[in-house]
Design a protein that fits this description.
The chain has about 475 residues and is an alpha+beta fold. About 30% of the residues lie in helices and about 20% in strands. α1 packs across α11.
Length: about 475
């Protein structure tokens, strides 16, 4: 779908390429490692990040801080859970260094190197470390070290800057999300996060990506042979595939910016990218000299893209199509997750709190006494007011601009509903919320279950 009826998509249409940026970030690190080989302080994949940006990179405990390496960060095995809400609630113009320094305030979930846990913050951290090593912005590093040598002159590092450039904006795809309620597509805003850098900042097109894929398939410069080998070396086993839009398999592997799938016994390297309104799928099968780059202006496009590239692989393999019994159920399940039926507040209330008393216990204080500014050093602040008889917060100044409204459940327990007006976008989500009241009858903190991996553990915002 294009923004205007007369705007046609071509191989030169520009898209937010989202997390496919990660492979470029890892490649840039490989070049920095090559540069340092004959210096007094050679950089290695197992170099601890804290040794590069000691004041900035601090995690919840000393062991994780001192032992998390570059390859841990680039292979999603740092021990930090995803923390998607931390990115959504951030202010879009915060500096990259500030975003990295927030990590010390986020609870760890896993031991380092024990579990695959997809985490954009780690790629942002590596981007910051690379900036300190080279003394220039991450986008400039990738442009001069990778894009220009490959002739990728139509690849950019800020969708906001591209959208403001009259020459480029005419070719910039507008993203959409399907709204089940109105049976139509709703336009999505462009990403505004200045700190996302190596985690997903790139803007490019399929024509440009063919140059990148040729480099990966045939292992040519500017990446060295040692760099190529390191980038596709498996580092992490992924056993939980429930959140991945991926080729069907009981498990996948992860290298440095690339997932690894086995196709007819041959390694298939791939990576997806997704933001509200965009779905990207990129990959290559070296044994066949085959690569693919597919870009769509809806996140759900990734489901079709997986089916397309698997079909193409079957066609070029010369053998019978591989039966995909697992794949068919996987795709059906993925599609049901992609466009789920919207839950009502009463349904969410029962799911969150199945044992509510009837009638519910009233909240301890009048609602106006819960009003105030609540702060968390890693997630920022949320200022509560009263709107139409409910507690609520205006979060329109965040990376994911929206409104949060609170519906009382029982006692000090609420349901927080974050939503975007459809004039802005389609993102929405429900969160368990809880308030603590001190002995003087004053609210002291608000807890929100913003990270699913933490289970029942909430993120607590202290009232100021």
């Amino acid at each position: 779908m294009a923004e205007f009826p007369d705007r046609k998509m071509t191989t030169d249409t520009l898209f937010s390429t989202c997390s496919t940026t990660k492979a470029f970030a890892a490649a840039a690190v490989s070049l920095a490692i090559d540069d340092s080989k004959n210096t007094d302080s050679p950089l290695r994949w197992d170099t601890p990040l804290a040794s590069i940006i000691r004041d900035d990179f601090v995690l919840e405990n000393d062991y994780s801080t001192n032992h998390t390496t570059i390859e841990d960060a680039l292979s999603h095995r740092s021990g930090l859970p995803t923390y998607g809400a931390c990115l959504s609630l951030a202010h879009p113009n915060r500096p990259l260094r500030e975003a990295v320094r927030y990590l010390r305030h986020l609870p760890m979930k896993y031991s380092p190197r024990s579990t695959f846990s997809y985490n954009n913050h780690m790629y942002m951290t590596v981007s910051h470390a690379l900036e300190q090593i080279e003394g220039r912005p991450f986008g400039e590093i990738v442009k001069t070290r990778i894009l220009e040598p490959l002739g990728m002159n139509d690849t950019h590092f800020s969708v906001q800057e591209v959208s403001k450039n009259p020459t480029l904006s005419r070719r910039l795809a507008k993203g959409y999300t399907w709204d089940v309620g109105s049976n139509t597509y709703v336009a999505e805003p462009y990403m505004t996060d200045e700190a996302v850098t190596g985690a997903g900042a790139m803007v490019s097109n399929v024509h440009e990506y063919t140059k990148w894929l040729r480099t990966m398939i045939y292992q040519t410069g500017p990446i060295s042979p040692e760099g190529h080998a390191a980038l596709v070396q498996p580092r992490t086993v992924i056993t939980d595939m429930s959140d991945l839009v991926a080729p069907p398999a009981p498990h996948q592997l992860y290298a440095l910016g690339w997932f690894i799938h086995s196709y007819r016994g041959e390694p298939l390297y791939w990576h997806s990218g997704s933001l509200a309104g965009f779905g990207i799928m990129v990959g290559f099968l070296p044994s066949k000299g085959f690569g693919f780059a597919m870009m769509s202006n809806t996140m759900n496009g990734r489901h079709a893209e997986v089916e397309i590239f698997l079909h193409l692989l079957d066609q070029i393999s010369g053998g019978p199509a591989i039966p995909r019994t697992i794949g068919q159920s996987h795709v059906a399940e993925s599609r049901s997750k992609a466009m789920p039926k919207a839950e009502t507040m009463s349904e969410v209330m029962k799911r969150f709190y199945p044992c509510l008393p009837n009638p519910p216990i009233p909240h301890s204080l009048p609602l106006h006494q819960y009003v105030g500014r609540y702060e968390h050093p890693g997630f920022g602040s949320i200022t509560l007011g009263i709107e139409k008889g409910h507690l609520g917060a205006n979060l329109l100044d965040r990376v994911t601009a929206g409104i949060m409204s609170f519906q009382h459940a029982s006692g000090e327990f609420f349901v927080g509903y974050f939503f975007q007006p459809k004039s802005i976008g389609m993102f929405s989500g429900y969160y368990k919320a809880e308030f603590t009241i001190d002995s003087c009858g004053v609210p002291t903190a608000m807890g929100l279950d913003l990270e699913p991996a933490l289970g029942e553990e909430k993120i607590w915002f202290q009232r100021k």
